[in-house]
Design goal:
The complex is a heterodimer of chains A (429) and B (456). Chain A has 429 residues and is α/β, with parallel strands linked by helices. Chain A is built from 13 helices and 17 strands. The N and C termini of chain A lie far apart (50 Å). Chain B contains 11 helices and 17 strands. The chains are: A alpha/beta (429), B alpha/beta (456).
């Protein structure tokens, strides 16, 4: 009997040890509260720079910006000597829809077929992708994640980098991706003649035009209440035609850009040009067409051997100077955290810090039609912002705290945990 | 009269040739009033650097040079040593000889392409030296070559840094096991096999060395009545590795495989080894510090393949703080254009000091390539490979303004012109459009039918 008691005690002890072991290395979760960020330098983006101001976060929104805001039951964060910026927006990535780039099992950015506009990037977003916390601690809070391949690879979605389901992450914008056919030689092994190139591009564009007309017919029948078979491709493409969804046209070579501008002339739909690597060669034409541009990565090679070494660095500035509204993208998956550095390079090579900042905040917010909620620090907007100890484009600067929709984001991720674990290792050789 | 004209014309041609020669080969230079980041001796304000015949002869204030010496006023600008990339595939016509798990006999110095525009672009980013490496298809790949970016020459040999010691490429993990094991059903199929391939190679080399030793001894004693052993440049190269004549630069990612090669090298008495990429180097940083010539890493690349999934951008900082000689490399024609920015990322990820960060792309890679006697810092007696920035090179706003190799200016932002190609193929005009953020070059030229993925 005594033995049994001892055994039970031992079991209890072991059990408690086991429980304790589970508590060790406790996880910090994002949490929502009312925060008062005091005495900060506030980069509003739309209303200048405010020195020594407070910013009040309530119910996930920026409730107030002002001097000496009275506090009551607020969690106070002293921001003396620090700056506040709106969360950065990367306007083109595959973040969340691929985990390890070389493993086909984890590549969810491409479906079979050339005409798959109904494929939803948002469906494939993994809220627990390891790259998501790696990204958001850099101040990049919001990204467009997009499918690729074919003529119409699918529908891109704007996501915030916090949430347990894709729906919770959804940032309020979707756009249909279209790859404009290219009539230029690509790569050193492409030996097609100019004639062949044009023939092939024209053929592809003809196919696209046929799809487009079909979508118009589909829409016409639908509008008149006609009955139709399940046709998800046309259902989705027709949403572009009735302006429910914008069309994001990926086009990069100068010649192709001009052809794309020609193609969109007659089309009464919402259009954004993406890529636009050689935009600097035809910037005036793009400006004249009054179409916005998502370009990048800025840290890229020139598109041709004969081009200036710095043409990709200059591209955003030259587009901006021509009068084009420019947003930037990295086209990254695991290294979206480099967006501020891409903006920094654009800033250094002619765009200037103010405009480069706009290109990753208010400009994409406007292009995506969500500028009423994100893209700048203004009362009433979502509290998606971060605290930094300096210019966030500078590598030296540290981002101290990120908020997404009012959630205080844990400033950690696997990269940081590995640093903590291995910096000063036990068991020396 | 005609003769006189001819003579005059001849003289003019000779004179202009002289001017040209002076322009291109003299390497005399005086840079005045720069903020000089020496790397090895602190940062010096308003300092002059005098260069004669490509060598730094004086560092100080109010230095005077002869009349013909080119003088650059660098007031308010930052002068640092030319950037060195310890892992590159720039200016190479081919990268992989993927035909066998060991191809130690092939030499990258045989496939240098002096026309590669990437050389100019690297110069425009302040990079003056790159380590042009064999790819990572084989466990023991080919011999690499250290290049000085003397762009403009049509002679491949002019690009070679002859002072640099021999180096060879090794590769562990996914690439050799995919190419040979999965692709050809040949060992290695696993990390066990990778070790076996190296051990087999080293043992065969020892036998080869013994056989030659025996034959040479017999020859000396004039007792010779047998034919010499069959010569093998592959085995001879392995012998040279075992005798410490060649520095190993080993493509590697995971801590286990890094540790494996450290153990094998210890056993065979090889201590000239640098680990490259080495994404999980941070896990075995104390071992790397104790037994190797260091680690050459990416600033932030990860997750492009499984063996780099458990990486951290803090790798360089952890390695540095553990005393590992650490460098940051590009492995890409794109990244090589802004290694100063890659180095700067170690300030965000781990808070390295300015000098620690800049050492990652100057003196440290120089040590790993065995060329720190000649380059990697601004010191009297060293070669005048220099780069001038308008802002501090670790700032995002820094733009390289001028780049010199051996005291000769190869890049000047003010006079930069669009087309810098030195060979133009009119058949391919306009030159092809190419969208690239810099491919990972390590697996170039490997038949993709058996590799599937194009990753380094």
């Amino acid at each position: 009997m005594k033995k049994l008691k001892i055994l039970i005690w031992c079991c209890c002890f072991l059990l408690s040890q086991g429980l304790m072991a589970q508590i060790e290395g406790e996880v910090i979760k994002p949490y929502k509260a009312n925060f008062l960020l005091t005495n900060a330098k506030i980069y509003t983006v739309t209303k200048g720079i405010l020195e020594g101001h407070d910013l009040l976060i309530e119910d996930g929104l920026i409730k107030a910006i002002g001097k000496d805001i009275p506090h009551q039951n607020h969690s106070i964060i002293d921001c003396s000597g620090k700056s506040l910026y709106p969360g950065f927006i990367d306007s083109g990535t595959s973040l969340g829809i691929v985990e390890i780039n070389s493993l086909t099992e984890t590549q969810d950015y491409m479906e079979l077929g050339k005409f798959t506009p109904q494929m939803q990037a948002l469906t494939a977003v993994n809220p627990n992708g390891v790259a998501i916390p790696v990204t958001r601690v850099s101040g990049v809070t919001t990204v467009l994640t997009q499918p690729r391949g074919g003529y119409f690879p699918g529908t891109a979605a704007l996501i915030n980098l916090n949430g347990y389901t894709p729906a919770q992450m959804f940032g309020g914008f979707k756009g249909l991706i279209m790859n404009f056919p290219s009539a230029v030689r690509s790569g050193s092994n492409d030996n097609r003649s100019l004639e062949d190139l044009e023939k092939s591009a024209t053929k592809t564009l003809d196919e696209i035009n046929i799809l487009w007309e079909k979508a118009a017919t589909y829409l016409a029948i639908k509008t008149k209440g006609g009955e139709m078979d399940y046709y998800p491709e046309m259902e989705q493409l027709s949403k572009v035609l009735n302006k429910e969804l914008p069309l994001l046209i990926e086009v990069n070579a100068a010649k192709d850009i001009v052809l794309a501008l020609e193609w969109i002339k007659e089309k009464d739909v919402k259009i954004v040009l993406t890529g636009v690597a050689e935009g600097w060669k035809v910037a005036e034409k793009i400006a004249a067409a009054s179409v916005s541009v998502i370009t990048g990565p800025v840290l890229a090679l020139p598109t041709r051997d004969s081009d200036n070494y710095d043409s990709p660095y200059n591209n955003p500035a030259l587009l901006h100077k021509a009068g084009v509204k420019v947003a930037l993208r990295t086209m990254e998956s695991e290294n979206v955290r480099n967006l501020p550095f891409n903006a920094g390079f654009a800033a250094a090579y002619g765009m200037g810090t103010t405009e480069a900042l706009k290109a990753i905040t208010i400009n994409p917010a406007e292009i995506f039609g969500v500028s009423d909620s994100i893209g700048s620090l203004e009362e009433g907007k979502k509290a998606t912002l971060f605290i930094a100890d300096g210019d966030p484009f500078e590598p030296k600067t540290q981002v101290h705290q990120v908020f997404i929709n009012g959630y205080r984001i844990p400033m950690t991720n696997r990269h940081i945990r590995l640093y903590q674990e291995f910096l000063d290792r036990e068991m020396q050789p | 009269m005609n003769k006189k004209r001819l003579l005059l014309a001849g003289l003019l041609i000779w004179l202009s040739a002289q001017v040209y020669a002076q322009e291109n080969h003299s390497g005399d230079l005086l840079i005045k009033n720069a903020q000089v980041i020496t790397i090895t001796n602190g940062s010096l304000e308003n300092t002059d650097v005098l260069v004669k015949k490509g060598i730094i002869t004086e560092i100080g204030t109010n230095l005077k040079a002869s009349k013909n010496t080119k003088t650059v006023d660098a007031s308010g600008q930052y002068l640092m040593p030319g950037i060195i990339d310890a892992h590159s595939h720039l200016a190479l016509e081919v990268i992989n000889e993927a035909s066998s798990p060991i191809t130690a006999e092939v030499q990258m110095r045989d496939v240098i392409d002096p026309f590669d525009i990437s050389i100019y672009r690297a110069l425009a980013g302040g990079t003056t030296i790159s380590h042009a490496m064999h790819g990572s298809a084989n466990v023991i790949g080919g011999q690499n070559v250290t290049l000085k970016h003397r762009y403009g020459t049509r002679d491949p040999n002019r690009l070679i840094m002859e002072e640099a010691p021999r180096t060879i490429k090794f590769a562990l993990g996914e690439n050799p096991t995919r190419v040979h094991g999965i692709g050809k059903n040949l060992q290695p199929r696993s990390r066990m096999g990778v070790e076996a391939v190296i051990r087999n190679g080293f043992e065969e080399a020892l036998q080869y060395k013994a056989a030659w030793g025996k034959w040479n001894l017999e020859k000396q004693k004039k007792e010779i009545n047998t034919a010499p052993p069959k010569y093998s440049s592959r085995l001879q190269t392995l012998v040279d590795i075992l005798e410490g004549k060649i520095i190993i630069h080993c493509h590697s990612y995971r801590a286990d495989e890094i540790y494996m090669l450290i153990q094998v090298c210890k056993e065979y008495g090889v201590d000239k080894i640098v680990f490259s990429h080495v994404n999980e180097g941070f896990k075995v940083a104390p071992e790397l510090a104790k037994y190797t010539m260091g680690a050459s890493v990416f600033s932030d690349w990860w997750a492009y393949k499984f063996e780099v999934y458990y990486s951290t951008a803090y790798n360089a900082a952890i390695l540095t703080k553990n005393g590992v000689v650490t460098s940051i490399n590009s492995d890409s024609d794109e990244l090589i254009r802004h290694l100063y920015h890659e180095a700067a990322k170690t300030q965000r990820y781990g808070g390295l000091t300015d000098n620690e960060a800049l050492a990652l792309i100057t003196i440290n890679p120089a040590k790993q390539l065995g060329i720190d006697k000649y380059v990697g810092s601004i010191e009297v007696g060293k070669q005048a490979d220099l780069v001038l920035f308008d802002n501090h090179p670790l700032s995002i706003y820094a733009i390289p303004q001028m780049t010199w190799v051996d005291g000769i200016k190869y890049f000047d932002r003010k006079s930069d012109q669009a087309d810098q190609r030195i060979k133009i193929n009119l058949k391919r005009s306009p030159d092809p459009f190419r969208l690239s953020t810099g491919s990972h070059d390590c697996m170039q030229d490997v038949d993709m039918s058996f590799t599937e993925n194009y990753h380094n």
